[in-house]
Amino acid sequence: MDKYVESVYNSLVEKDPDQKVFHQAAYEVLTTLEPAIKKFSKYQENKILERMVEPERIVQFRVPWKDKDGKIQINRGYRVQYNSAIGPYKGGFRFHPTVNLGMMKFLGFEQTFKNSLTGLPMGGAKGGSDFDPKGKTDNEVETFCTSFMLEVYKYIGQFVDVPAGDIGVGAREIGYMYGAYRKITNQHGTCVLTGKGLTFGGSLVRTEATGYGCVYFAEEMLKTKKQALKGKTVAVSGSGNVAQYAIKKAMQLGAKVVTASDSDGWIYDPAGFDEKKLDFLLELKNVKRGRIKEHADKFKAQYNEKGKPWDIKVDVALPCATQNELDGKNAKTLIDNGVIAVTEGANMPSTLDAIKAFQDAKILFAPGKASNAGGVATSGLEMVQNSQRYFWSAEEVDAKLHGIMVNIHKTAYDTAKVFGQPGNYVLGANIAGFLKVADAMIAQGYTA
Question: Exactly one of 126, 232, 293, 369 is catalytic; which is it?
């Protein structure tokens, strides 16, 4: 590691030694930025790295709420507003027991680069709570969301910070938070949250966008090898929003998707998903909030409590569940089984060891900040539609989403070539995202 870059990394580790997942994200980004730092002295002279690894603002607060028995419960809430050099803060809320400050910093840091890559004027942020909506009644979730918004509304707004959903925050939670925001502020605030319902300012295709975008990026990567998804066997992890629509788009492009998973286990269906199986999965997860085993039982698929979807021989892997779900051992299994492309649908689902294994083996590998940017890109398109008080058709939004993903791929691919590492999408995406934000910070002065 370059001495300057190493000093920046060591400093942030010393300041927050327990934030391991943030350290991982920072290490992956900082080490790939070395060619740009060496080529352009202005970034070191203006201490851009030191400024960029520190959030502009961190808000932490308590969230008291009443459970179904009338007892008061307390959770922690966070909003990490990381960088607003190119636009208002933008990034989702996550409700999950694993949420802590280090996790929010990691996600906000990644979001800054991801949003930059979309080409839209959006800064980076992330927030959420260690509240777990799983198993809670609708009334409990509404009570929590209202209490959460009673604090966080002070720090958000269409020209300041525009949150969206993430793990544990779907249409139900966004609806409750939007309703609370509207009642608290006496403003309709259509641009203040994205991922809204279609009846109150949401965009068509927003639900599908992250999964669709991930598959669009995979298709673009395969084109560089004169291949396509059609006829390929695909492993998908997860069974939530991203996984569901990655499965759907992969099917539409002619691939056979043979796996899905949740926190209890995973399924392997050699025949692959079809429309009937996918419809059942959507009903199971989005309405019944059931477990993936029910899907295996219904369609006589293989159900596994041990191992991971990466144990199966496939052509393409789409990790769409959560961070660090695909490690070095899993990567070796995929490589040994002949995988040709790995495209991240989740945020940092591959460990550093896994990424290195894929790159050493010359496997096409796309980091989430590039390949899962479809969700936030379509959130940006939702903001545009809200601002003009006019909405586009599903076909128009999907076409714009596809165009953005094609451009992100081209930007990452071309940037990697410019810096002498063709095919290194990690380096290409990181440097391309960095350059836009860094130049904006320099142009706006030392306080930016």
Answer: 126
126 is catalytic: yes
Domain 209-362, CATH class in plain words:
alpha beta
Is the torsion defined by CA of 14, 19, 20, 21 positive or negative? negative
Q: What is the CATH number of domain 3-188?
A: 3.40.50.10860
The helix or strand, by DSSP H or E, that contains position 201, with its residue range, turns out to be none
Q: Where in the chain is the domain with CATH 3.40.50.10860?
A: 3-188
pLDDT (tens digit, 9 = 90+) per residue, 311-344?
Answer: 999 999 999 999 899 999 999 999 999 999 999 9
Domain(s) labelled CATH 3.40.50.720 in the chain stretch across 209-362
Q: What's the pLDDT tens digit per position in 76-128?
A: 999 999 999 999 999 999 999 999 999 999 999 999 999 999 999 999 999 99
Dist CA 350 CA 369 (whole Å): 12
Instruction: Please tell me the distance from the alpha carbon of residue 428 to that of residue 334, in angstroms, as a whole number.
Output: 23
Given a contact cutoff of 8 angstroms between Cβ atoms, the answer to whether 308 and 261 are in contact is: yes
